[in-house]
Amino acid sequence: MLEKKTIEYEKAVLIGVMNKDQNEEKVNEYLDELEFLTYTAGGEVCKRFVQRIDLPNPKTYIGSGKMLEVEAYVKSNDIGSVIFDDELTPGQQRNIERQLKCKILDRTSLILDIFAQRAQTSYARTQVELAQYEYLLPRLTGLWTHLERQKGGIGMRGPGETEIETDRRIVRDRISLLKKKLLKVDKQMETQRGNRGALVRVALVGYTNVGKSTLMNVISKSDVFAENKLFATLDTTVRKVVIGNLPFLLSDTVGFIRKLPTQLVESFKSTLDEVREADLLLHVVDISHPNFEEHIDSVNQILTEIKSSDKKTIMVFNKIDQYEHKTIDDDDLITEKTNKHFTIEEWKNTWMRRVGDRALFISALNKENLEEFRKRVYDEVRDIHITRFPYNNFLYPEHLDEY
Ligand SMILES: Nc1nc2c(ncn2[C@@H]2O[C@H](COP(=O)(O)OP(=O)(O)OP(=O)(O)O)[C@@H](O)[C@H]2O)c(=O)[nH]1
Ligand SMILES: [Mg+2]
Fold first, then answer.
1. Closest C-alpha to ligand 1, atom 11
2. Which residues does the annotation place in the binding site for Mg(2+)?
3. Band of pLDDT at residue 287, cut at 50, 70 and 90
4. pLDDT (tens digit, 9 = 90+) per residue, 326-344?
5. Position 25 pLDDT exceeds 70
6. CATH 3.30.70.560 fits 197-402, yes or no
7. Strands of the 201-206 sheet, one edge to the other
8. Which co-factor is required (predicted)?
9. What is the pTM (predicted TM-score) of this model?
10. How many CB atoms within 10 Å of residue 245?
11. Could you tell which of 209, 217, 254 is best to mutate to test the pocket of ligand 1, judged by most ligand atoms within 8 Å of the CB?
12. Is the CB–ligand 1 distance for residue 209 below 6 Å?
């Protein structure tokens, strides 16, 4: 019999704060995502702590009373990591670590850790390593200021300072080396992209885990890795797809997330170039996710950051097979109807009013509505093609179904 392998999950605790603009539901949704990230990184969440606080405590993020509560729990439950749903300052991180005496992670370091774990190619690894060192550098500096403050400048010079200075120098050297390495690969990739000729380029973009790779696979009959964890894809895959007689390039790339660390956006610059240089974006959305509208906003924000927000875009609402809306009983006269109660039909109407026919509702998994999807993509690609090659358009019939 095959030996059954059980994965050892590290015990973790999550910490979030609720300010006056957030309700409990919202904070829980954020912590659900943090829990999913933790699970993806190999952790098992034993408890969540939430504190109502308008501004994070500058020393320990949460208040001292809450810290004691967390400390007691960490001690008696053999907790390996305490994970905060926000970026901690280097000082906060250190103070908390000193009190809790276990690993302290923030949202940024957790995401960086997942990226590091998932990077397959040497190119992706280089990009992640750069982002990690960029994250580390101010924290090394922080370590020094902290020692300086604690023990005073005098007597702390010498070995202590040299050590940190050396560390800092090593990290800086490593950063510039990695940047040079990436620059070289960037050039190669640029040439590669140039060699692809005049084909229209379409890019799948969207929040992580929405089904971009699954859609890529059904459309291009390729075999991109897809799974129900976050950041399954880190590298970009480009495939030539032909719909009707019209060939174009389709790319699948890294997923986005709320508060995506800026270090990652920067170091994944060339991976994201595929998006930046695309003629058409397919913005894939997981409509079955309770927070999908916020996901759309996060994605749009990142698209703005990488100067791609004004591109022609089709909104592709995926996972309609899994969509569940809240219902209101007939005799319930109190509950107000919100968009959580919308049916798929109501969402269709809403989005049609917003973007006209540039919104599609599909299930990549069950292959629902894929014909409509192909037809819309065909029409858009054809339009781009005709604009680009006005003398060559006799090749393409007005509509796909004229074949
Ligand atoms: N129910 C349902 N599940 C889907 C559908 N499309 C994809 N999935 C599932 O959603 C999960 C994520 O799919 P991926 O294709 O890996 O998602 P992705 O957007 O590429 O994710 P990242 O690469 O992590 O950003 C997988 O478990 C898929 O099987 C769908 O239409 N319906
Ligand atoms: Mg993917």
1. 228
2. 213, 233
3. very high
4. 888 888 888 888 888 999 9
5. yes
6. no
7. 237-243, 246-252, 201-206, 280-286, 312-318, 359-361
8. Mg(2+)
9. 0.87
10. 10
11. 209
12. yes
